[in-house]
From TrEMBL:
Domain Mannitol dehydrogenase C-terminal span(s) in chain numbering: 323-510
UniProt entry keywords in alphabetical sequence: Oxidoreductase
One Gene Ontology molecular-function label: mannitol-1-phosphate 5-dehydrogenase activity
Species whose genome carries this gene: Enterococcus faecium EnGen0026
Known catalytic reactions: D-mannitol 1-phosphate + NAD(+) = beta-D-fructose 6-phosphate + NADH + H(+)
Endoplasmic reticulum recorded as keyword: no
Name by which UniProt lists this protein: Fructuronate reductase
Domain annotation Mannitol dehydrogenase N-terminal: ranges: 40-307
Pfam families: Mannitol_dh, Mannitol_dh_C
């Protein structure tokens, strides 16, 4: 049996199973990384394990990263204890191309793992020391969209942020407050330069990170906790940079089928863990083979040579175009469409959904006919070529165990970017009219239908976690399958559809609010109404690819 913790003792067995192993001095990498860190990463979940850890490993194998990565978690301490420390910060990566021949490798470039929270004083003290070290060049983030949001739909600070503002930098709890507190220590120790790099899936992510961080710092300055010079430090992008990025790699939750496969191949302790906070994680990570990472090349304190690991380094405008292409047109809106419809229609697999002619045509209509006409090519990637890779190849990959339920998580935090940006372009471009949109409004109507918590057969299901789920479900609480009272439905959904915080635009000002109302009412007619509504719109407006 192969023990991941002691992989060096099983090199013949790993070679026989074609498992790639490290070719660097891991002990030196970890020691150097803990003493003089270069790269810290916030968010120890599966995207780090299946992409960032691979990039670091690739660089280390080439002698380009002698320090390793310090990975930290601010939300779920069990991730650190049970997925990292128990396995000596090693990761077994399983890359799953559609061809069926999996690639397995032991990723070993994580130098340390820490629960970065004042409640864990030992780990937090280590992180303070790392931020005070001039060697630190960059901090990356994969914390999802909600990690950056400080206010609720009423434009008031959410509870943890309000408490953190009142308490100041000594005992922060929210990720953004923790980051602000750590940067304050870096400022006090020498105001060293640094790059703060969001790797989360939304447009202009660096700008949002900067806005959120500065908001907290300015509130602390008002309260007298930090000086104006700290605000000046954070505001000077020649010292503290916020590079924009586009990241793309489908990395679903660990799959039970992969767990069983690894166990059958002789790997010990490959069980999947669900933490008390609901994170699904394992000693292994399963991910697709196709991936992209495009980064704005702005690192005031230097950087590893990421291009040696296949990363594109370019200017901000190109990153913005590439990210807009992916997040608003060629991948993420299609993923969310499959997520919402998949939950309503009883699917548990994205790949299985792609075998459904209605759903396959739906995502093609959204991508090719509604998104592509208003997206600008970034130059380094052709949008149509990218889309042609996503729809028939990546989404249809039967080896990727991705579920609509995973993608549906935090939808309220995603719709403004994934659909609102395209709607705004139809409002702004002279020869475009948002009233011509059909399938983007249909998905927004389907999301309202999803929030009712009944599938297309009328059976209850549990919607995926979402910070606005309780609020939105409360607003829709007396709408049930069969509700057809137009005035009553309008009373309930107009405040939602007109909310710019959710959609990025007032959908009534975009002149598609009434259309969405009508679609929603049709989907409420009875059992199978979602499927019938989808088919009717596809028959009337689809099939023109």
């Amino acid at each position: 049996m192969i023990d991941l913790n002691n992989w060096e003792n099983f090199i013949p067995e790993l070679s026989q199973k074609e498992v790639e192993i490290p070719h660097f001095d891991r002990a030196s990498l970890r020691e150097t990384g803990q003493r003089n860190p270069v790269w810290i990463h916030f968010g120890g979940g599966n995207l780090y394990r299946g992409f960032h850890a691979e990039i670091a490993h690739c660089l280390a194998d080439q002698g380009e990263l002698p320090t390793g990565v310090i990975v930290c978690e601010t939300f779920d301490e069990e991730i650190i204890e049970k997925a990292y420390r128990v396995f000596d910060d090693l990761i077994l990566e399983v890359v799953m191309p559609s061809s069926g021949k999996f690639v397995k490798r032991v990723l070993a470039a994580t130098a340390d793992s820490l629960y970065c929270h004042p409640d864990c004083s030992e780990h937090f003290a280590k992180m303070i020391g790392h931020f005070e070290n001039p060697s630190l060049q960059l901090v990356t983030f994969a914390i999802t969209e909600k990690g950056y949001r400080l206010k609720d739909t009423s434009n008031k600070y959410i509870g943890p942020i309000a408490v953190d503002i009142k308490n100041g930098p000594k005992k922060p709890s929210h990720t953004m407050s923790i980051l602000a507190a750590l940067l304050y220590r870096r400022f006090l120790s020498g105001a060293w330069p640094i790059a703060l790099v969001s790797k989360d899936n939304f447009s202009q992510n660096g700008s949002q990170l900067r806005t959120s961080l500065l908001a907290i710092a300015k509130e602390w300055q008002k309260e007298g906790y930090v000086p104006e010079t700290f605000i000046q430090y954070l505001s000077n992008e020649e010292i503290v940079a916020f590079p924009w990025t586009m990241i793309d790699r489908i990395t679903p939750n660990p799959s039970i089928s992969v767990s069983r496969m690894l166990a059958e191949e002789g790997f010990l302790n490959m069980s999947i863990l669900q933490t008390a906070k609901g994170t699904n994680i394992a000693p292994f990570v399963n991910t697709e083979d196709i991936h992209y990472l495009i980064m704005e090349d702005h690192f005031p304190n230097g950087r590893p040579r990421f291009e040696k690991a296949g990363v594109f380094l370019t200017d901000r405008a190109t990153v913005d175009k590439a990210d807009t292409m992916k997040v608003t047109t060629c991948l993420n809106p299609l993923h969310t469409a499959l997520a919402i419809m998949g939950c309503l229609l009883g699917y548990r697999s994205i790949a299985e959904e792609m075998k459904d002619p209605d759903l396959s045509l739906l995502v093609s209509e959204i991508g090719y006919n509604e998104g592509l006409p208003v997206v600008e090519s970034p130059g380094i990637i052709d949008p149509k070529t990218f889309l042609e890779e996503v729809v028939p190849v990546r989404f249809s990959n039967p080896n990727i165990p991705d579920m609509p339920q995973r993608i549906a998580t935090d939808t309220s935090q995603k719709v403004a970017i994934r659909y609102g940006e395209t709607i705004k372009k139809y409002m702004e471009i002279e020869n475009k009219d948002p009233q011509t949109l059909v399938f983007i409004p249909l998905i927004l109507a389907a999301w309202l239908r999803y929030l009712i918590g009944l599938d297309d057969q009328g059976k209850p299901f549990t919607p995926s976690p979402d910070p606005l789920l309780v609020e939105l479900q409360h607003r829709l609480s007396d709408i049930q399958l069969g509700t057809q009272d137009t005035s009553h439905i309008q009373e309930k959904i107009v405040p939602i559809l007109s909310n710019k915080e959710i959609f990025g635009v007032d959908l009534y000002q975009a002149e598609i609010g009434r259309k969405i109302e009508g679609m929603f009412i049709k989907m409420l007619a009875g059992p199978n109404a979602v499927r019938k509504t989808l088919q009717n719109y596809l028959q009337e407006h689809g099939g023109t690819l």
